[in-house]
Prior knowledge:
The chain has one domain (27-137). It is built from seven helices and three strands. It has helices spanning 10-15, 34-42, 55-64, 67-80, 100-109, 111-121, 131-137; strands spanning 17-21, 24-28, 82-86. Helix 2 runs antiparallel to helix 4, helix 3 (55-64) packs across helix 4 (67-80) and helix 4 crosses helix 5 (100-109).
Amino acid sequence: xxxxxxxxxxxxxxxxxxxxxxxxxxxxxxxxxEGCEKFALEHELIGKQFSKGSARALISSASKAGDxxxxxxxxxxxxxxxLDWENLQDDDGKDIPFSEGKAHEIxxxxxxxxxxxxxxxxxxxxxxxNKEEELVKN
Length: 138
């Protein structure tokens, strides 16, 4: 196995990749990207919740954290991980325009949506540098 297999694409990590689920499109950056790291330093939230660790540990940490810490984690995600969406609709079928504030509100209110975003954001395969090259070869 070539060492370059482990190289990450910094642009994908920081600017995100589009993922799709049943017509919903989410622009997801890697959790632990440069923006997250800076946010963690600014808010003194250094620790496993901002590492590129397992989704389960992260979700569990966010769920068990105090209200202030949990809110800061969700704020980091709404600012630096969930960067956009398309086709997210309210119960009346109206599109919900993306904004950081709306993302924070929805991630706070719907823990399963938060879990979904984190699962995508922690999937390292989405952010590998040579992923497209490997797909072309196969």
